[in-house]
Write a sequence for this structure.
């Protein structure tokens, strides 16, 4: 009996020690493996340029392994859907923006996700105005030239955009309504095809993010006519705003931020947010982002989440008024 009691007591102590060791074992530090940054748009566009800049510089700053991976299609919604399905561990994040998080849910009838519920905001990166530009050989020297020509011949002035229902397309639609003109919209599958056709003169105008067009502007092949933000772009200080061009109060910008699947631990979100904000505070990173035509802007996760919720609600009416629809 004594032996049995001693055996049971010893076994219980060993089991308790084992269980304590298991619960007390420290979790692997985050990150302990590569982080995948999903880019939901094709290579070469504004989102891709900023995503790869941030991924590269963040890896250098932290010694983390970050891999940017393009998952384009359906207005940026495929990459979002893939990220939402991933395990909420912090090893799958996505660079989202106004197009795929604010506008796309009102364009596509059957999206199986809601950006305000199925994603958690991690870090804001930058915002950028929309740019209206034309080929350097174009007859249009100013935005006023475009308006005058469009009033004389409605629907004859064409513009290329990265796609139907994108924030860029809707910014152009809002401008046309403000100016009381009718332009002919030519949607492309991404920024680069629209840019190439504008350079070739196949469309009269290019409506684009500033980062997507900056290289050709610097090369002297593309003539910027106006930006859609309330203030001039620090990257293109000589280019007037639409508001300055006679349409007071006009202000449309897009933005870029990092998001993770809902349920991602708050400690992971805080770690990512801290490192991204530290990166955005560096003068050389600020300059690199501004050189691409964007304005770096740090936010807390709560501030980014509030911005997403506010614009998600606000843009429903704008999308409906535009008449843009996608299946």
């Amino acid at each position: 009996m004594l032996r049995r009691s001693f055996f049971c007591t010893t076994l219980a102590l060993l089991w308790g020690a084992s269980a304590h060791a298991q619960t007390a074992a420290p979790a692997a530090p985050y990150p302990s493996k590569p982080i995948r940054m999903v880019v939901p748009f094709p290579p070469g566009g504004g989102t891709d340029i900023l995503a790869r800049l941030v991924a590269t510089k963040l890896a250098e700053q932290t010694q983390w392994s970050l891999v940017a991976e393009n998952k384009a299609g359906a207005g940026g919604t495929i990459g979002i859907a893939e990220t939402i399905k991933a395990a909420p561990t912090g090893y799958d994040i996505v660079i989202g923006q106004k197009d795929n998080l604010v506008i796309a849910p009102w364009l596509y009838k059957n999206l199986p996700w809601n950006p305000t519920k199925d994603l958690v905001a991690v870090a804001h990166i930058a915002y950028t105005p929309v740019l209206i530009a034309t080929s350097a050989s174009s007859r249009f020297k100013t935005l006023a030239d475009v308006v005058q020509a469009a009033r004389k011949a409605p629907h004859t002035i064409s513009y290329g955009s990265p796609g139907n229902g994108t924030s860029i397309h809707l910014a152009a639609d809002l401008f046309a309504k403000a100016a009381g003109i009718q332009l002919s919209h030519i949607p492309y599958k991404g920024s680069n095809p629209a840019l190439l056709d504008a350079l070739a003169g196949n469309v009269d105008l290019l409506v684009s993010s500033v980062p997507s067009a900056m290289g050709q502007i610097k090369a002297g092949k593309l003539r910027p006519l106006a930006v859609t933000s309330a203030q001039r772009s620090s990257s293109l200080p000589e280019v007037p705003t639409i508001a300055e061009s006679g349409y007071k109060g006009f202000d449309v910008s897009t933005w870029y931020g990092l998001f993770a699947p809902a349920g991602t631990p708050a400690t992971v979100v805080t770690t990512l947010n801290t490192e991204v904000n530290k990166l955005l505070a560096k003068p050389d990173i600020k300059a690199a982002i501004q050189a691409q035509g964007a304005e770096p802007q740090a936010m807390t996760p709560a501030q980014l989440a509030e911005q997403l919720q506010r614009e998600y609600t606000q843009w429903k009416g704008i999308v409906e008024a535009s008449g843009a629809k996608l299946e």
About this structure: The domain at 129-227 is CATH 3.40.190.10 (D-Maltodextrin-Binding Protein; domain 2). The beta strands are 35-39, 66-70, 92-97, 119-135, 158-161, 184-187, 205-209, 222-227, 253-261, 295-296.
